[in-house]
Amino acid sequence: MTNKTSKAANGETIHLCENCGSELATIQVPVDGNNLLMHSCDRCDKRSWQLAGQEILLADALVEVKEHVSKRR
Questions:
Q1: In principle, which of 3, 46, 60, 69 could form an S-S bond with 15, CB 3.0–4.6 Å?
Q2: Total number of domains in the chain
Q3: Cα separation of 26 and 31, whole Å?
Q4: What is the spatial distance between Cα 37 and Cα 54, in angstroms, rounded to a whole number?
Q5: Domain of 34, in residue numbers
């Protein structure tokens, strides 16, 4: 799912669902110097993941996080 974006009055980027246009909730997790982003739409229940600006599958996102956590131990 590719997300649309918009700018808020304060200059922040707002991610919008391409399916319904609702604002997406975004969670950001730093992983090995890159940001893993999870975008979630409450209205359509769609989710997408991006790592370093590239859309990835959930399975790949979980592998990245697992590898990152393993390195910290």
A1: 3
A2: 1
A3: 16
A4: 10
A5: 4-72
